[in-house]
Predict the 3D structure of the following.
Amino acid sequence: MIQSLFILSPTGEVLIERHFRSILTPRSVCDIFWSRASESLNHHGGISAATTAAANAGGFFHGNNHPFMLYDSVPPVMEVPVNALEDGPSSHVEKSGVIYLFSILRDGLSYLAACPPAIGLEGPETPPLLVVEFLHRIADTFVVYFGNPADESAVKDNFSTAYQLLEEMVDYGWPLTTEPNALTDLIRPPTVMAKIQQAISGGSSNILSEALPTGTVSNMPWRKAGVHHPNNEIYIDIVEEVDAILNAQGSVVSSDVSGSIQAQSNLSGVPDLILTFNDVSLIDDCSFHPCVRYSRFEKDKVVSFVPPDGPFELMRYRVSRERGSGGVSRMTSPSSLVGNMPIQVLPRISYGRHIGGNNENKPDNNIPGQISLSVTARSISSLIYSSSRKGPLIIEDVAIIIPFPKFVRTANLNVTDGHVIYDEAGKIAKWVIGKLDEKKRPQLNGTMVLEEGDESMDNASSSPEDGEQPPLLVTWKILLASVSGLNVSGLSVTGEHYKPYKGVRNITRSGIFQIRCH
Amino acid sequence: MASTYPNTNMPVPGGPPPGTNGIPPPPGQPGQPRDESYFTESRKGEVNELRQLLRTFGTEKDRNRKRDIMKKVIAYMTLGIDVSRLFTEMMLAIETRDLVVKKMVYLFLCNYAETHPDLAQMCTNTLVKDCGNEDPMVRGLALRALCSLRLPQMIEYTSEPLRKSLQDGHAYVRKTGVMGILKMYHLNKEEFDKASFNDILYDMLRDPDSSVVTNCILVLNEIMADSGGMALNRAVMLHLLNRIHEFSEFGILSVLDLVPRYIPANDEEGFQIMNLLDPVLRTANAGAVVATIRAFLSIADAVGKRPGDDRDPDSPTVDDLKRQVVVRIKAPLVTLIASSSNELSYVLLKYADQLIDLCPGIFDDEYRQFYVRFSDPTHIKHSKVRILAKLANPQTAPDIVSELSELIATVDDTMGRIAVRSMASIAIHDSGGEGAVESIARRLVEMLDLQGIPHVSSEAAVSLASLVRRHPNITTVISAPLPRALKYITEPSGKAALIFLLGECGDSIVEAPYVLEKVIDSYENITDTGVKTALLGATVALFFKRPPEVQLMLGRLLKKTTDDVSSQDLHDRALFYYRLLRSSPDPTLAKAIDDDSELRAALMNEFNTLCTIYRCRAENFIDEENLVKFVKMPPEHPLPRDGNVAPIVDPGVNNLADQFGNASVTDVPAPAAVISAPAYSAEVDLLGFGDDLAPSGPPPLSDTNAEAVVVSALQMRTTPTSTDAVESSLGTFHIFTMASGELPTEFKFFLYCQEEGGGYFLIQAVAQKAPPSLALTIKPHGGDNDRNKRREMIDQLIELIKTSLGE
């Protein structure tokens, strides 16, 4: 049971506060949370600080689960002693002496849920994952309503809707209505028209659309009733993400391919869909959206479902081992995977000083560091291209993020292709290459000026150990390609009379794709 | 601040900023940026202006302007400004068809009802009326507001609409109603008990709408918390499980949480439940997946076979089942960890850790999933590194160890330490297979030299110290760099560990004593007690290995440590070593304080002798020729050892029978015992009796349950002078002696004889010296099973003895 919910801005200000029962969790829990969170931020220095800056500015790096949103936060489950709270807690909390604070971080906002201790004073124990999942669901819902990213300004602009949503999503501390489709039946999302009107006129708020909610709640919680689209379409993206760690020589230390099927459904009425695959044995360990009939999949290996309206994630899977072992997925021996990634980044970074057994090479702070990166694309047999695809391998949206250690003061970087931005405060460079084919071989060269002074030598954390060059992060995308070879072989609609337009495509892209520099 | 919190606060900005005069700007005028203007302007006077605005509310036609006025009131309320004065005006607005305005008025009402119960009571009618509105949304909202008023005196008004709502045609109203019951329960438990909602709730578990059922479960669990939550029976459980796919992903959790509390009727049902739940592992909701795992494990507990269970030997044991469960859930769990948000991953990693402990080995092949990613938050990295060490087996260990060594030099100190510790734990648990211990030890030794990162070298030293305790044979591998490392490892824990290692590896490090000597000479500079203690221990250990080199420095150290008052423990230890060594400088004395269990066992044998007093074995202080041989007798006892062999024939012989009953070897004093073995039979033969009549040796002593016969107080002719006299006279009747002895007042004989049929009679004879009388106990052994016949034989035997010894 969730006793209270707080949403904090990236600077620790309480944006939203909601108590579900008669207990009022003192607001000072937020202060405790915030002081611990900022402690860990300070502790981990540069990169996370940059991320906060980025989160604040809303620029530089975007996206929900972008690898660089690494806001090194406190553990998501915290025990907060109540005697640490100054302002008078209500008697219930005092008795128990402690409350549990669950936190998640999304788009710079911290969502906090305060739960009573395990047993019985004000309610039974709450499974921790329920709370964490539910906080994420709240954040997801905000994205649906306020757009992506649902950050500080989005929430501030939509306070009233946010509170209405919470009112419907939680009743007396328990999740109530959690499906976005069901919620939009109860509370109208802000419409684009209303926003424009507001922006132009500054006039009266039309955040709530004119039409009142119908109040009819369909018996499929994920799908609202009475959907009508002029054009009936459904788009299905099979997205496979390659998570990998490569070493400086380009061999794969660890890799894993996970896939998901993202769908955008604009279908009228209550369509019942059956999706069939060319070969289900290509995938492992599927998990589905609640709308999917699991038993049908177990029995016939087809995905049978009534889709929610709008975008949703139909399923997730892992590329099966048999398939993966031939390709970029797992292997027993990492060395045999050399060069099996479609993109190869070879870093060479040195800081002009050496530490180790021999002290002959006295550290000289004036010798700048050197960096050079070379990027190549190569077609590999393990990628399976869609039949509609023509021409040579093209990797799109290639970008490399280069974090520098703290002792680097500044960097001077030159690239042969694309452009590079260096963020001095965060000590991060981002090299945007864009499209990459096998002919192009972009290079990055540059020098770094290091911090002077002895304290860098005394302070262990800033002495240039080899291990301290953080790994590079690479993002890329290959359209119409797949690691697993999974494809949709059929999509049939029953229950409705129209013939929808169906679009299916494969995308392979980087998940968390790291290059170690040593 | 807390006291002024609204219970349900809902700032509703989003409209244009009000002009400073509180009148909405004319349409078309560009608004200010919509900063939190509602929150910044908080002048008291504005409440009055709001009141003015609210008065125009009834005549206002523009719905949006109406909403704006409401929003302002609510915004003030959430700021903690007391707008309760507007109560009357707000209540006038409750009669509206605009759902948004209605929601806001309800909110206002709930907030101030507690402080203005009289006014709140006035609008109950409206709320109750709204509970009958045609729109289910309005019905639900009104009901929720009504239940959230928190006015105990309102119970009478609420229970009726509440009851009606439970039969509402619309699920939204029903589920609001169910939650309303819980609110009522917390408000007034007595009224609640009277209303007896429990039965209704149990009935509603069959509601067609799953979210209503979810709420029923939640409410029942909470109401019945004292008795452990909702009552479960087979029908309810199976009903819920069969519908499990209808539940929303959060609702499913409430059902899954019931499963561990349910005891399956039989094994078959347990397995059926598992099959029903199996598809839930396919949901994307981590909470549901983990709740399913818990349900599975609890069923495994219930249906699995336990040791000592007399079930079908083929049925799987609890451990087998749990293993199967973990094998089944491994893939979904690992996928969730890899693909979930950081917060979920963290919680899931903690669960995975526990499952790995439950079934070691199963997760081993997924070890790459636990590799640390640079972008992971610190707490996730730490959990992963701890888990990695547990996944080591001979195949995976090399990869894991090299991965761990990548991590030791990260910016995060704690991380480096955990990585080193994890690596060492692979060696300590010996999970890395052959050669792993040594190669890990080598890596740790390399780390000792990482001067740039002191915490790693220190942690490496600590790990090596634990490693040596577990695998003493690796000392040769690690000894070389120890003296060097002592110079630059500064952290107390690391230093203490190094000093310990110097003591342990003293054999193989030539310069060990001299390295320690330097430390001893700078003893005054050591501040950490741990280091001092380690130094003392190591020096003493080294002293026993290389006494001549260490003796002097040990003396100095003992002096310093006994004078050191900073730690009682250290001081006492030093004194202990000092006294020990003073009593004997002989290093072998160290063994004296070792294990003396052997001596203690030996002393127990010589209990109640001088040995106990001297705490020393007799052979240590008595010359060999004077040693009394300690022999237990008899080597084999003729009579069964259990005392109840003799049924009482005659109450008059109670005493004697008791005596006999208690008779055991100890009754025959060992020194006086004369062993008269069947050798006598030969003697007897010499007296002219045929071999054929002699029994073929002493009877077998296995216990038979034949009853013994006791005969008391046979008159004897004379007091026998010695045992021999009695024995020889009995011998003439082919009654032979196994053992005999003389006590101050009586003689005791253990006799036997054999009948023609091969059966034996065992006889205990006690001859009183004065007056001369004889008590006999005769026990048949083997031979004829006919009781009467045996009895006859015994009578004959008694006669025989009488003739031999009697008058």
